Amino acid sequence: MTPGATVGLLVGRMLTVSPRPAVSPGDARRLLQDELRDRAYDAARPTWWDRVSKSFLDWIGSFRIGGDAGVDRILLVVGIVVVLAVVVLLVVVVGLPRRRAVQRGASGSVFDADDRRDARALSAAAAAAAARGDWDQAVVDAFRALVRGLAERDLVPDVPGATARTIATDAGASFPGSASALTESARRFDAVRYAGVDADESDYRVVTDTDTAVRRVRPVEQIAVPA
């Protein structure tokens, strides 16, 4: 094929190929967003730990004085010690008060001032909380249902501000066979409500089993001591 024929063929092909339509800025933005949603880009992005560790290493690396390697090493050690000291301090400040509260048995009133729900309503609220996996609320409402049920039977005084331990002690006199279970239920209520301990299903079951037990048993009659 002669050079002239080759050029003619190329020109013919160029004329027969239809040009691609222009892409608008909006379409270009959408195509770019679709492309960036690819999981390959997610894997390439740095995690929060990558960012934090890089910032820490950059901060440590900024401690340089006069290019002396010995001084640099000393500053590196000092920086690490400072960071560890801050971490230990946070653990002590945040963790110890909660641990001490659990150990000494922090306790408070069982009911809020405006909570006048009966035992049935409280039991339903506890069951609903358990169904959605909110074990903290389930334990609190279940113990309140237990206490309200005892008060409705005139077995414990319905006194605003009464603590869980006081109620458990009073109820234990009427149900000696469940005295330890009542005390344990009160302890778990206080741990969740006032010490910030996270509850689980076993805590909820302890309280509800205790409630069931005292409902099924006749209380021991208290003998009045003559004055």
Q: What's the SSE blueprint?
A:
Blueprint: H1 3-16, H2 25-36, H3 39-44, H4 48-61, H5 69-104, H6 119-131, H7 135-152, H8 164-174, H9 179-193, H10 201-216
Helix pairs in contact: 6-7, 7-9, 7-10, 8-9, 9-10
Summary of the model, kept short:
This protein has 227 residues and is mainly alpha-helical.
Describe the structure in your own words.
It is a single chain. The chain has helices spanning 3-16, 25-36, 39-44, 48-61, 69-104, 119-131, 135-152, 164-174, 179-193, 201-216. With 227 residues, it is mainly α. Among the domains are: 48-104, no CATH class; 119-216. Helix 7 (135-152) crosses helix 9 and helix 7 (135-152) packs parallel to helix 10. The protein starts with a helix and ends in an 11-residue tail after the last helix. The model is unreliable at 97-105 and 223-227 (pLDDT under 50).
Distinctive features:
single chain; 227 residues; mainly alpha; 68% helix; elongated
Distance between the termini: 132 Å
Choose one word for the global shape. elongated
- SSE series: HHHHHHHHHH
Q: Show unreliable segments.
A: 97-105, 223-227
Proportion in β-strands: under 5%
Helix run count: 10
Which structural class is indicated by helix and strand composition? mainly alpha
Return Rg in Å. 35 Å
Characterize the largest beta sheet: strand count, sense, and whether it forms a barrel.
none
